[in-house]
Design goal:
332 residues, alpha+beta, 8-stranded mixed β-barrel
Length: 332
């Protein structure tokens, strides 16, 4: 499935040449709509610099100087962080979207494994191939320009690859179905972004995404994706650009450096509570709509409001199953 990513961060579009390369990274909040379009909603930080190589024989790959091209950060400013997150949540609600998660993109010409989680080891020969492919692409000035203009916005098209890709694009067709899954999901996926002439391909190398507390989180390395990347590089179809990490759902906020400092902020708690209410209303409206279409009459919202946290958690699981059954009944 090819998805549109509107107003993508510069780190996803990093370019390089014989003279130098862009390095840096971005961490941002991303939303999703019913058609699974992604939207950049606000940066936690974004830093991109131009690293220029020495213009001397034998030193062509050695960095001589850095020039900062872009910098904005609220990563270490608790007040600004609370204000920005709260405003972003309200904007997502107003635009009838969902809080998809937090994207972290690192551009380093594959000199290290910045966003790969501790304990996950990528074979050195693979890292060497990534570095070599990056060098070869910049020497030939082959970095594709995949950014497109659309009205007053920009966008790139992206695609996820991997056995666990459904953990990132989910199952179902309605916003309510996506809301139900995003409300329950926890965890993150990491991997490598490689571009073709038209797409930014997200190759998932590992994830620990779960939907239930009892689900097991296992460390793995998707060797099939590694081989796909190697083949794409060999045939000069793929250009490796950066590492990525995607933390899913509103719980992704808990990964922020200042989370422990900001989590008890009244303003932030109100915004998160309003978002949770927004999701619950959406889920219950879908359930009640399907009840009506199946000629079942029962208003569960009144009972739900009287339940404790554990009871609400259990009933939401039951509602999720019930929605699937009711949809199937309508198809028959």
């Amino acid at each position: 499935m090819i998805l549109d990513f509107y107003n993508p961060p510069r780190a996803l579009l990093a370019l390089s040449s014989k003279e130098g390369l862009e390095i840096g990274g971005s961490k941002l909040i991303v939303s999703i709509d019913e058609e699974r379009n992604f939207y950049s909603e606000g940066h936690i930080y974004s830093e991109m610099s131009w690293a220029e190589f020495y213009d001397e024989e034998g030193l062509e790959d050695v960095i001589d100087s850095f020039t900062q091209r872009e910098f904005e950060s609220i990563n270490e400013d608790s007040e600004a962080l609370v204000d920005s997150i709260s405003e972003t949540i309200h904007k997502i609600i107003k635009r009838k979207r969902l809080f998809y998660g937090v994207f972290d993109l690192e551009v380093d010409a594959f000199l290290n494994e910045n966003t790969i989680i501790p304990g996950l080891k990528i074979p050195p020969n693979v890292i060497n191939k990534l570095m070599s492919a990056h060098r070869n692409t910049r020497d030939k000035i082959l970095f594709p320009k995949i950014l497109r203009e659309t009205g007053n916005q920009t966008k790139v098209q992206i695609k996820f690859y991997g056995d666990k890709k459904n953990h990132l694009i989910f199952i179902g067709s309605t916003l309510e179905e996506l809301a139900n899954q995003l409300r329950a999901v926890r965890g993150f996926a990491t991997g490598i972004v490689c571009t073709t002439q038209i797409l930014a391909n997200f190759y998932i190398l590992n994830d620990n995404i779960v939907y239930k507390d009892e689900d097991e989180r296992k460390l793995y390395l998707d060797m099939k994706n590694i081989h796909l990347i190697e083949e794409g590089i060999k045939n000069e179809i793929l250009t490796p650009v950066n590492w990525f990490r995607i933390d899913l759902g509103i719980h992704a906020l808990e990964t922020l450096d200042l989370w422990e400092k900001i989590k008890n902020s009244d303003k932030l708690q109100v915004a998160i509570a309003e978002y949770d209410h927004y999701l619950l209303e959406m889920i219950f409206e879908e359930f009640e709509k399907l009840q009506t279409e199946n000629e079942i009459g029962y208003n569960i919202m009144d009972d739900f409001l009287q339940m404790n946290a554990q009871e609400r958690k259990e009933i939401l699981k039951d509602i999720s199953i019930a929605i699937k059954i009711l949809r199937e009944n309508l198809k028959d």
